[in-house]
Amino acid sequence: MKNNKNKSDQIQKNFIIEFFKKNPNRNIKHPEVVDWVVATYKKRIGKVFRDPDRAIRQLAQKGLLIKISKGIYKYDPRKAHKRDLEDFTAAQKEFILKRDEYKCVICGRGKKDGVELHVDHIKPKDLGGEATIENGQTLCSQHNFIKKNLKQTETGKKMFIRLYELAKSEENKGLMKFCADILETYENYNINGHIVWKK
Protein backbone atom coordinates (compact mmCIF):
# COMPACT_ATOMS: atom_id res chain seq x y z
CA MET A 1 0.00 0.00 0.00
CA LYS A 2 2.82 2.40 0.94
CA ASN A 3 4.60 1.70 -2.38
CA ASN A 4 1.40 2.57 -4.26
CA LYS A 5 1.14 5.88 -2.37
CA ASN A 6 4.80 6.72 -3.10
CA LYS A 7 4.28 5.86 -6.78
CA SER A 8 1.13 7.99 -6.89
CA ASP A 9 2.93 10.91 -5.18
CA GLN A 10 5.77 10.70 -7.72
CA ILE A 11 3.34 10.61 -10.66
CA GLN A 12 1.60 13.71 -9.27
CA LYS A 13 4.95 15.50 -8.83
CA ASN A 14 5.81 14.60 -12.43
CA PHE A 15 2.70 16.49 -13.58
CA ILE A 16 3.85 19.57 -11.67
CA ILE A 17 7.36 19.27 -13.12
CA GLU A 18 5.87 18.90 -16.61
CA PHE A 19 3.89 22.13 -16.15
CA PHE A 20 6.92 24.10 -14.95
CA LYS A 21 9.19 22.70 -17.69
CA LYS A 22 6.65 23.95 -20.25
CA ASN A 23 6.84 27.38 -18.55
CA PRO A 24 10.52 27.92 -17.65
CA ASN A 25 11.88 31.14 -16.11
CA ARG A 26 8.41 32.50 -15.38
CA ASN A 27 7.11 33.59 -11.99
CA ILE A 28 3.91 31.57 -11.81
CA LYS A 29 1.10 32.12 -9.33
CA HIS A 30 -0.10 29.10 -7.44
CA PRO A 31 -3.68 28.96 -8.87
CA GLU A 32 -2.39 28.74 -12.46
CA VAL A 33 -0.28 25.68 -11.59
CA VAL A 34 -3.00 23.99 -9.53
CA ASP A 35 -5.72 24.53 -12.15
CA TRP A 36 -3.61 22.98 -14.94
CA VAL A 37 -2.27 20.10 -12.84
CA VAL A 38 -5.66 19.11 -11.38
CA ALA A 39 -7.42 19.24 -14.77
CA THR A 40 -4.64 17.43 -16.66
CA TYR A 41 -4.27 14.73 -13.98
CA LYS A 42 -8.04 14.08 -14.03
CA LYS A 43 -8.05 13.93 -17.85
CA ARG A 44 -5.05 11.58 -18.20
CA ILE A 45 -5.31 9.43 -15.06
CA GLY A 46 -9.03 9.68 -14.31
CA LYS A 47 -8.48 10.44 -10.63
CA VAL A 48 -8.49 13.50 -8.38
CA PHE A 49 -5.09 15.10 -7.66
CA ARG A 50 -4.88 15.26 -3.86
CA ASP A 51 -3.00 18.13 -2.19
CA PRO A 52 -1.10 19.75 -5.08
CA ASP A 53 -0.01 22.51 -2.65
CA ARG A 54 2.09 20.09 -0.63
CA ALA A 55 3.66 18.57 -3.75
CA ILE A 56 4.65 22.03 -5.04
CA ARG A 57 6.22 22.94 -1.67
CA GLN A 58 8.15 19.66 -1.60
CA LEU A 59 9.56 20.30 -5.07
CA ALA A 60 10.67 23.77 -3.96
CA GLN A 61 12.29 22.33 -0.83
CA LYS A 62 14.17 19.81 -2.99
CA GLY A 63 15.44 22.64 -5.18
CA LEU A 64 13.55 21.81 -8.38
CA LEU A 65 11.47 24.98 -8.07
CA ILE A 66 12.38 28.40 -6.72
CA LYS A 67 9.92 30.02 -4.33
CA ILE A 68 9.74 33.67 -5.39
CA SER A 69 7.25 34.74 -2.72
CA LYS A 70 4.17 33.30 -1.05
CA GLY A 71 2.27 31.31 -3.66
CA ILE A 72 4.63 32.19 -6.54
CA TYR A 73 7.16 29.69 -7.92
CA LYS A 74 9.59 29.55 -10.82
CA TYR A 75 11.43 26.78 -12.66
CA ASP A 76 14.95 27.73 -13.75
CA PRO A 77 16.48 24.86 -15.77
CA ARG A 78 20.03 26.06 -15.01
CA LYS A 79 19.47 25.92 -11.26
CA ALA A 80 17.36 22.76 -11.23
CA HIS A 81 20.25 20.77 -12.69
CA LYS A 82 22.59 22.14 -10.01
CA ARG A 83 20.46 21.06 -7.07
CA ASP A 84 23.02 18.42 -6.01
CA LEU A 85 25.46 21.29 -5.51
CA GLU A 86 23.14 23.20 -3.17
CA ASP A 87 24.28 21.44 -0.01
CA PHE A 88 27.57 22.59 1.47
CA THR A 89 30.48 20.18 1.20
CA ALA A 90 32.28 19.12 4.38
CA ALA A 91 35.19 21.41 3.41
CA GLN A 92 32.86 24.39 2.88
CA LYS A 93 31.17 23.75 6.24
CA GLU A 94 34.51 23.63 8.03
CA PHE A 95 35.67 26.85 6.31
CA ILE A 96 32.46 28.68 7.28
CA LEU A 97 32.57 27.44 10.89
CA LYS A 98 36.23 28.50 11.19
CA ARG A 99 35.58 31.89 9.54
CA ASP A 100 32.72 32.51 11.99
CA GLU A 101 34.95 31.37 14.89
CA TYR A 102 32.68 28.40 15.65
CA LYS A 103 30.00 30.80 16.97
CA CYS A 104 26.46 31.72 16.00
CA VAL A 105 26.65 34.98 14.02
CA ILE A 106 23.51 36.24 15.78
CA CYS A 107 24.03 35.43 19.47
CA GLY A 108 27.74 34.59 19.63
CA ARG A 109 27.19 31.26 21.40
CA GLY A 110 29.15 28.20 20.31
CA LYS A 111 30.05 24.63 21.19
CA LYS A 112 31.79 25.74 24.40
CA ASP A 113 28.40 27.08 25.51
CA GLY A 114 26.82 23.70 24.81
CA VAL A 115 24.85 24.73 21.73
CA GLU A 116 24.62 22.82 18.47
CA LEU A 117 25.90 24.77 15.46
CA HIS A 118 24.53 24.62 11.91
CA VAL A 119 25.99 25.90 8.65
CA ASP A 120 23.08 27.76 7.10
CA HIS A 121 22.32 29.24 3.67
CA ILE A 122 21.87 33.02 4.06
CA LYS A 123 19.64 33.01 0.97
CA PRO A 124 17.67 29.76 1.39
CA LYS A 125 17.94 26.94 -1.14
CA ASP A 126 14.23 27.10 -1.94
CA LEU A 127 14.65 30.78 -2.89
CA GLY A 128 17.53 29.96 -5.26
CA GLY A 129 20.37 30.23 -2.74
CA GLU A 130 23.49 28.35 -3.71
CA ALA A 131 26.05 26.45 -1.64
CA THR A 132 28.85 29.01 -1.76
CA ILE A 133 31.11 30.22 1.04
CA GLU A 134 29.65 33.72 0.62
CA ASN A 135 26.11 32.38 1.09
CA GLY A 136 26.99 30.45 4.24
CA GLN A 137 26.83 31.43 7.90
CA THR A 138 27.06 29.74 11.27
CA LEU A 139 23.89 29.68 13.38
CA CYS A 140 23.00 27.97 16.63
CA SER A 141 20.07 25.57 16.33
CA GLN A 142 17.72 28.09 17.98
CA HIS A 143 18.54 30.92 15.56
CA ASN A 144 18.58 28.56 12.59
CA PHE A 145 15.00 27.54 13.48
CA ILE A 146 13.93 31.19 13.91
CA LYS A 147 15.52 32.17 10.59
CA LYS A 148 13.83 29.30 8.75
CA ASN A 149 10.48 30.63 9.94
CA LEU A 150 11.14 34.37 9.62
CA LYS A 151 13.83 34.70 6.92
CA GLN A 152 17.14 36.50 7.35
CA THR A 153 16.04 40.14 7.15
CA GLU A 154 12.95 39.59 9.32
CA THR A 155 15.07 37.94 12.00
CA GLY A 156 17.49 40.87 11.94
CA LYS A 157 14.77 43.51 12.09
CA LYS A 158 13.02 41.84 15.03
CA MET A 159 16.36 41.50 16.83
CA PHE A 160 17.09 45.25 16.43
CA ILE A 161 13.56 46.17 17.56
CA ARG A 162 14.06 44.12 20.75
CA LEU A 163 17.51 45.65 21.27
CA TYR A 164 16.06 49.14 20.72
CA GLU A 165 13.33 48.49 23.32
CA LEU A 166 15.92 47.23 25.81
CA ALA A 167 18.16 50.26 25.23
CA LYS A 168 15.12 52.53 25.65
CA SER A 169 14.22 50.92 29.00
CA GLU A 170 17.82 51.37 30.16
CA GLU A 171 17.97 54.91 28.74
CA ASN A 172 21.06 53.96 26.71
CA LYS A 173 20.91 56.78 24.13
CA GLY A 174 23.94 55.60 22.13
CA LEU A 175 22.54 52.11 21.61
CA MET A 176 19.08 53.55 20.88
CA LYS A 177 20.59 55.73 18.12
CA PHE A 178 22.53 52.78 16.69
CA CYS A 179 19.39 50.59 16.52
CA ALA A 180 17.25 53.45 15.19
CA ASP A 181 19.74 54.08 12.37
CA ILE A 182 19.63 50.43 11.35
CA LEU A 183 15.82 50.24 11.59
CA GLU A 184 15.50 53.44 9.52
CA THR A 185 17.67 51.78 6.87
CA TYR A 186 15.12 48.95 6.74
CA GLU A 187 12.42 51.59 6.15
CA ASN A 188 14.46 53.54 3.58
CA TYR A 189 14.79 50.41 1.45
CA ASN A 190 11.22 49.22 2.17
CA ILE A 191 12.43 45.93 3.66
CA ASN A 192 10.02 44.02 5.90
CA GLY A 193 7.56 46.90 6.19
CA HIS A 194 5.04 44.48 7.70
CA ILE A 195 7.17 44.44 10.87
CA VAL A 196 6.46 47.76 12.58
CA TRP A 197 8.63 49.47 15.18
CA LYS A 198 7.80 52.58 17.18
CA LYS A 199 10.40 55.18 18.10
TrEMBL record:
<dbReference type="GO" id="GO:0004519">
    <property type="term" value="F:endonuclease activity"/>
</dbReference>
<dbReference type="GO" id="GO:0008270">
    <property type="term" value="F:zinc ion binding"/>
</dbReference>
<keyword id="KW-0255">Endonuclease</keyword>
<dbReference type="GO" id="GO:0003676">
    <property type="term" value="F:nucleic acid binding"/>
</dbReference>
<keyword id="KW-0378">Hydrolase</keyword>
<keyword id="KW-0540">Nuclease</keyword>
<dbReference type="InterPro" id="IPR002711">
    <property type="entry name" value="HNH"/>
</dbReference>
<dbReference type="InterPro" id="IPR003615">
    <property type="entry name" value="HNH_nuc"/>
</dbReference>
<protein>
    <submittedName>
        <fullName>HNH endonuclease</fullName>
    </submittedName>
</protein>
<feature type="domain" description="HNH nuclease">
    <location>
        <begin position="91"/>
        <end position="145"/>
    </location>
</feature>
<dbReference type="Pfam" id="PF01844">
    <property type="entry name" value="HNH"/>
</dbReference>
